[in-house]
Write a structure and sequence with these properties.
158 residues, 2 strands
């Protein structure tokens, strides 16, 4: 007796190739989705914080302006986020916010770090004053970690 298994072996080989292609596609999609989430939740907030630190490094008074702008946006959002009563067609009441669409916000941890950076910069600017801020900005201006203590002073009228 001679058994011809050619067609079943070809079928198994084709199914094996299709299974491999399907696994590769699923892994690629999963990697892309994971990469997108990492970008949105980790990398973009860290890049935003590094940008703020660099901006505060060159102009420490910028932290005060950031703090004021942040306080203005907080007061505006608090006024619009009050719950209101919405009546449905069936007569039942539902409590909700004025904007039913979810807003895309940064994660709480990164937002807290950003606020801490802004507050530290504001305290630095307020503690040293305008003249001290200029000295600090000159010391932080270059990439060396050395403090130049013999920077010539300047007169500032208060």
């Amino acid at each position: 007796f001679i058994f011809d298994l050619t067609s079943s072996v070809k079928w198994e080989a084709a199914m094996g190739i299709m299974q491999t292609v399907l696994v590769v596609i699923v892994l690629a999609i999963g990697a892309l989705l994971f990469s997108r989430d990492v970008d949105q939740l980790v990398l973009l907030p860290i890049e935003r914080m590094i940008g703020k630190v660099n901006r505060i490094r060159f102009d420490p008074l910028y932290a005060i302006r950031l703090s004021e702008a942040d306080n203005n946006t907080k007061s505006n959002t608090k006024a619009t986020d009050r719950p209101k009563v919405v009546r449905k067609a069936n007569g039942k009441r539902r409590f909700g916010t004025r904007d039913s669409k979810p807003k895309h916000t940064a994660t709480l941890e990164t937002k807290m770090l950003e606020n801490t950076i802004i507050k530290l910069g504001s305290l630095l600017a307020l503690g040293f004053g305008e003249a001290g801020v200029r000295i600090i900005a000159e010391n932080l201006d270059d990439d060396s970690a050395q403090v130049r203590a013999k920077i010539p002073g300047s007169k500032v009228e208060a």
